[in-house]
Design a protein that fits this description.
With about 240 residues, the chain is an alpha/beta fold. Helix content is about 45%, strand content about 15%. α7 crosses α8.
């Protein structure tokens, strides 16, 4: 019995650990991560910006296709390059809170979590005159307190269901294959316009694959929307 109990505990611990990082997991608080399968709407989302020069290059690609996306920004990078953050907002894209310095929140105290989210909000307010209404945890990591604090600050938790793995991809083709294998309809795609360690992280593959993804799915009759637009569609 002790052996079986030990296995049960190990399985439960493994499941709990998985749920703390799984983008579509709901154990540690409700989050929005997709519409129903079969929906024609697609949301492109980008984490870890603003990043010079790749965020601006992405804005050019998105404008060329008349597509609006959602950018989850790191507060300290907003402070470093407020003009890029303003360009995102002025182009009509949605912005989201991605904390001030991108820590893994699973292991942070409640006060640190609150400060990370609040400081990012403050950075956006100073740079843009507005703050975010949506939030994505760095690395997708969370425990119940993370989303509770976010909601108290007026932030809706947002995850994703399609991962491009563009942060370590060796080619544009590799990212495109990974994205297309996961697409089912009503999808929220995770890509990155920056890197959390430093400004200037190379995201040229992401810029190129964005153009390919938009061309592919517009030809299939998909509609690219922001996360707020997708969430509004869910309420209809």
């Amino acid at each position: 019995m002790g052996y079986l109990a030990g296995i049960g505990i190990a399985v439960a611990a493994s499941a709990a650990g998985y749920q703390s990082m799984a983008p579509t997991g709901q154990w540690y608080g409700r989050n929005f991560h997709r519409l129903s399968r079969g929906s024609k709407k697609v949301a492109l989302t980008y984490d870890d910006g603003p990043n010079d020069p790749y965020t601006l290059q992405l804005l050019e690609v998105l404008a060329r296709h008349n597509v609006k996306a959602t950018f989850f920004m790191i507060g300290e990078f907003v402070c470093q390059r407020p003009e890029i953050a303003r360009a995102v907002l002025e182009a009509g894209h949605a912005i989201g809170n991605h904390t001030f310095s991108h820590p893994l929140l699973i292991f942070k105290s409640a006060s640190t979590i609150r400060r990370q989210l609040a400081d990012c909000q403050g950075a956006m307010q100073d740079a843009l005159g507005v703050s975010a209404t949506i939030f994505r945890p760095p690395f997708g990591g969370r425990r119940p307190e993370v989303f509770r604090i976010a909601r108290k600050l007026g932030l809706q938790p947002i995850m994703w269901n399609v991962t491009g793995y563009d942060w370590n991809a060796k080619s544009v083709d590799e990212i495109e294959r990974k994205v297309t294998r996961q697409m089912r309809g009503g999808d929220v795609i995770l890509l990155h316009d920056g890197g959390h360690l430093e400004m200037g992280t190379d995201r040229s593959h992401t810029v190129a694959v964005t153009d390919r993804i938009i061309r592919r799915y517009q030809q299939q009759g998909r509609e690219f929307v922001t996360i707020p637009q997708m969430m509004d569609a869910e309420k209809i």
